[in-house]
Amino acid sequence: MSEIEIPEDHPRYQSLLTRHRIEAGVDKGITSKQGLIAEGRGEAFDYLLGERTTESADAAERAAAAQLLLADHPVLSVNGNVAALVAPEIVDLAEAVDADIEINLFNRTPERMEAIAAHLREHGAENVKGLTADGRIPNLSHERAKVDADGIGAADVVLVPLEDGDRAEALGEMDKTEIVIDLNPLSRSAQVAAIPIVDNIIRAVPNMTDHAQELRTANHDQLEEIVDAFDPEAALAAAEAAIREGELA
Ligand code: PTJ
After folding, report:
1. 224: how many CB neighbours lie within 10 A of its CB?
2. Domains defined for the chain, CATH in brackets
3. Which residue has the CA at smallest separation from atom 7 of ligand 1?
4. Ligand 1: does its nearest atom lie under 6 Å from the Cβ of 130?
């Protein structure tokens, strides 16, 4: 048994665990009610993918790890779903690639910002950004435009998980390199990402950390080679094909 009363060999274990974490996130004031709907949408895609990391998603996760290691100032953006699902794993990834963690919310309230910051700190995050909000992403009219000037505002590489929206495009216009995690290959964020990762975040983030640890001894040229060999359009096409063909395990 694990954090939920369901044996780990239950065929629906992963999706039940994910649901449980999102529900607990709503109870703690971390996740918005809309986050429950986003979770359902992701779950449907994951079901069609066979709830597994495909070969092409694994390659994207390796390229993402290399890109984060190459960055001067990488930032991992966290919303209410991300915090509920993978808080300790995000802290581990930030440590592995020396990145900042910044909270950025669509449904931004001071209470949720504080609850998420406290949750991340409970899981070992030392410096949580996003609360100062002294910077802005141009051409975005909603709350996601609010960033820390010395966080996402100054980042060269940003990890953008679980948001189908216009922020990814606006960040691209600021010349930031984006890594997107989204189970929907047709999501607007995945479509504009330099590195789209079509995988469940609960598998993607720990796998990125494993790759980053394995690549720690790689030199600059070797890391660049991995990033250059990655083709975002081919990765999106492979994910869409896997979903349409329903390669269920
Ligand atoms: O916490 P806030 O206020 O910033 O709000 C966050 C949500 C998630 C509610 C907001 O960003 C939203 O409404 O998102 P969307 O437009 O529903 O997009 C979420 C995307 O994440 C969808 O494309 C889902 O397929 C995808 N998704 C959901 N769960 C997962 C996922 N992708 C990977 N792993 C998941 N577990």
Report:
1. 14
2. 55-245 (3.40.50.12640)
3. 35
4. no
Kindly state the tokens that stand for 212.
Answer: 């980053």
Contact at 8 Å (CB) between 224 and 81?
no
By most ligand atoms within 8 Å of CB, the mutation choice from 48, 164, 202 for ligand 1 is 164
Residue 182: CB within 6 Å of ligand 1? yes
Q: Give the integer Cα–Cα distance in Å for 31 and 83.
A: 8
The whole-number average pLDDT for the span 16-37 is 95
Q: How many CB atoms lie within 10 A of CB 12?
A: 12
Digit-coded pLDDT (tens) for 186-234: 999 999 999 999 999 999 999 999 999 999 999 999 999 999 999 999 9
- Quick one: tokens of 168? 């990814």
Q: Which residues pair with 135 in a beta bridge?
A: 147
**How far, in Å, CA of 7 to CA of 16, rounded?**
11
171-179 contact pairs (CB < 8 A, 24+): 171/137, 173/138, 173/139, 174/137, 174/138, 176/152, 177/67, 177/71, 179/64, 179/67, 179/68
pLDDT digits (tens, 9 = 90+) for 97-138: 999 999 999 999 999 999 999 999 999 999 999 999 999 999
**In this structure, are residues 116 and 102 in contact, taking their beta carbons and an 8 Å threshold?**
no
Instruction: Establish whether residue 132 lines the binding site of ligand 1, counting it when its CB lies within 6 angstroms of any ligand atom.
Output: no
